[in-house]
Amino acid sequence: MENAAPETGGGSPEQKEQQQRVEKERKFLTGPQARRFELGLAWEIFCEFISGFRHLHFIGPCVTVFGSARFKEDHPYYILAREVGMKLAEAGFTVMTGGGPGIMEAANRGAKDVGGHSVGCNIILPFEQQSNPYLDIDITFNHFFVRKTMLVKYSYAFIVLPGGFGTFDEVFETLTLIQTGKLRDFPVVLLGKEFWTPLWEDVIVGRLIENKTISPKDLDLLFLTDSAEEAVNYVRDIAMQRFGLSYAQKMERRWWLGENPPFEKT
């Protein structure tokens, strides 16, 4: 998911707090720090994981939609993502995105158009990324790696529309997890042939396969299409054939842990 360029000016308390959080993570990623600092941040990261688990534990079978935050609602890719969200919801999936604007908003919006369930995992950045208004569950993370874990952990499939560095990071990390057996072979769909074909033909086939840095069978990890209907049918059929439409076991809610149905207001 791609984020719009930062705006100058501002300086609200919320923006300052976000900037402080980002600076804290930047410090953490800049070599060894004081033990107290690193232990404190490790605890914060642990708590962020637990918060994500509690919010998303009962959301049911999901499909995550990746893509740029920069497309406006009149852009063809926005329109395509909205159609994808509609068809995923109609197929019985909860639509999960990074919770921001652009492709993310479009997919969440499509789910809500047909009365489906919509989830967003947003991220705190130096410049504020607003959650889109089409979310049943909106959870914000401080750390990209925690957020990406949630976007992968609860999904049966991944549909990837055009995007930039963030989108490429997400799709290739997901493919790496599948290729190395860390993640089951869930379907990964690249939607938008005009955008993705150069990557497929020139890089994946023309460079990676040619130089034997990946195996020919790894091509089976990706499905390339222009059709939202074809993408969702592919996802639905594989999800049903390989995994069913529910997780291995139904998780029983514990009232004493404050676990409530995820899509009911309490």
Structure description:
With 266 residues, the protein is an alpha/beta fold. It has a single domain (49-246), classed as Rossmann fold, CATH 3.40.50.450. The protein contains eight helices and seven strands; from the N terminus they run ααβαβαββαβαβαβα. The protein has helices at residues 13-28, 35-56, 76-90, 103-113, 144-153, 165-179, 193-209, 228-243, and strands at 62-66, 94-97, 118-123, 137-141, 155-160, 188-191, 222-225. The protein has a seven-stranded parallel beta sheet with strand order 4-3-2-1-5-6-7, sandwiched between helices. Strand 1, helix 3 and strand 2 (94-97) form a beta-alpha-beta unit. The longest helix is centred in the first third of the chain and has 22 residues, at 35-56. The model has no long low-confidence stretch (mean pLDDT 88).
Order of strands across the widest beta sheet?
A: 4-3-2-1-5-6-7
Distance between the amino and carboxyl termini: 30 Å
For the residues shown, what is the average pLDDT?
Answer: 88
User: Which descriptor suits the 3D outline?
Assistant: globular
Number of strands: 7
Assign the CATH architecture.
Answer: 3-Layer(aba) Sandwich
Number of helices: 8
String of helices and strands: HHEHEHEEHEHEHEH
Under CATH at level 1, the class stands as: Alpha Beta
